[in-house]
Amino acid sequence: MRLNILVTGAGSTMGQSVMKALLMSKYGSEVYIHVTNSEQLGAGFFLSERVVGRHIVPIAKDPSYIDEIIKICKKFAIDGIFSGTEHEIYALSYGAERIKKETGAIVFLSRPEIVDLGTDKYKTYKAFKENGLPFPETALFDDYKKLIDKVGGFPIFMKPRIASASRNIFKISSEEELFEKKFTDSENIILQEFLNSDIEYTAEAFCDKDGKVVGVIPMIRNLEYGMSYYGKIDDNAEVIRVTKMVADALKPEGAINVQMRLVNGKAIPFEINTRFSSTECVRAHYGFNSVEAAIDNYLYGMEVDLNNWRKGMFMRYWHECYFDEKDIPGAVFSVKAIG
User: Fold this and answer.
1) Residue 223: its H or E element
2) What's 298's DSSP letter?
3) Could you tell me the residue range of the domain that residue 8 belongs to?
4) pLDDT in tens, 227-240
5) What is the model's pLDDT at position 332?
6) Dist. CA 233–CA 138, nearest whole Å
7) Which keywords does the record carry (predicted)?
8) Distance CA 324, CA 329 (A)
9) Is the pTM here over 0.70, yes or no?
10) Is residue 251 within 8 Å of 208, Cβ to Cβ?
């Protein structure tokens, strides 16, 4: 059976990582990959000979974005869609039901209310509190005095309320500094209890279509330019326990990434991303291929088990792709046949 997969965001590290994990999967030698981007140049367009379709689409905020995705799905009989950028997860999650109804394609993303929790850090805080999950005390900017009283004073963290690829995050040590570092409107800033620990983990859990957690894999990483630059897969029982608690409570569809710090041996989450990440290829290399699992379970209804991964380290480096100018997609799309 021919498998046609669409990956959005050819120019993003997330989209490229999803593609790499797909190519590393059991489907890698036979899958037909279509890739989208809002610009004509994106490394994902030229990542593999398995890329048979290169498509230019509007940005996700454009009212015609989902219409264009549906056109591609219909024309090329797309079976499943992976979002490759943070910007597109909202549009694709909200459009998933329509896409499936009109084309049959499955969008491998959580339902909109779960995507919303992962994007809005204040909603994350409230959801964790409602579910009895550990989380640092958090407040909107105008409630800073209440937060300071609750946590016993400075320092605190200042962050954008909406996901921002680690930009505009500050450790604040005084009320004066709080207002000096204020970078946008009050309602778009959250203040968060300072977690006094340098031990930070990101763990991914994968939930099947029945809401069952079928695997958790912890990672320690170093961030550069808003992405994981180097790190290691580490078997930490406390991190696995808390990540599973989060996934069991929220029941996302597919992947959820939980960021946390170890404070006195206890894992305290402070952020979640309800999507695939830019390190899917790293996890896949060590036996935790959630891209493959999504296709197995959500598309084909197969049972999956992601508990047989192994520990190891990784480091990223620049790599080039080479292509002919004629292969750059035009205004709508360009298709190249395999073989």
Assistant:
1) strand 213-224
2) I
3) 4-109+319-335
4) 678 899 999 999 99
5) 43
6) 29
7) ATP-binding, Ligase, Nucleotide-binding
8) 11
9) yes
10) no
Laid out side by side, the sheet with 333-335 consists of 106-107, 80-82, 4-7, 32-37, 51-56, 333-335
Phi, psi of 9 (to 5 degrees): 80, 55
Residues 30 and 85 both lie in one domain: yes
In a shared domain, residues 169 and 274: no
Give the integer Cα–Cα distance in Å for 242 and 239.
5
**Spatial CA neighbour of 7 closest among 291, 299, 323:** 291
pLDDT at 95 over 60: yes
CATH number at 185 reads 3.30.1490
> Which tokens belong to 46?
């030229």
pLDDT in tens, 188-218: 999 999 999 999 999 999 999 999 999 999 9
- Of 29, 252, 297, 309, nearest to 127 by C-alpha is 252
pLDDT greater than 70 at residue 333 = no
* Claim to verify: residue 305 and residue 328 sit in the same structural domain: no
Q: How distant, in Å, are the alpha carbons of 66, 75, 80, 106 from that of 92? A: 7, 18, 12, 10
pLDDT of residue 4: 99
142 vs 139: CA distance, rounded Å: 8
Judge residue 287's burial from the number of C-beta atoms within 10 Å of its C-beta, 0-12 exposed, 13-18 middle, 19 or more buried.
middle
Q: Specify whether the CB–CB gap between 118 and 163 falls below 8 A.
A: yes
Do 206 and 307 fall within a single domain?
A: yes
In total, how many domains does the chain have? 3
Task: Assign 17 to helix, strand or coil.
Answer: helix
What's the rounded Cα separation, in Å, for the pair 227 and 204?
A: 15
For the chain, how are helix, strand and coil distributed in percent, rounded to 5? Answer: 35, 25, 40
For residues 203 and 222, membership in a common domain is answered with yes
9, 28, 246, 257 from 134: Cα distances, Å:
33, 39, 9, 15
Q: Alpha-carbon distance 302 to 98, whole Å? A: 24
Average pLDDT over residues 284-305: 99
Please report whether residue 116 resides in a domain. Answer: no
Helices (H), 84-171: 86-103, 112-119, 121-130, 144-151
User: Residue 168: its pLDDT value, please?
Assistant: 86
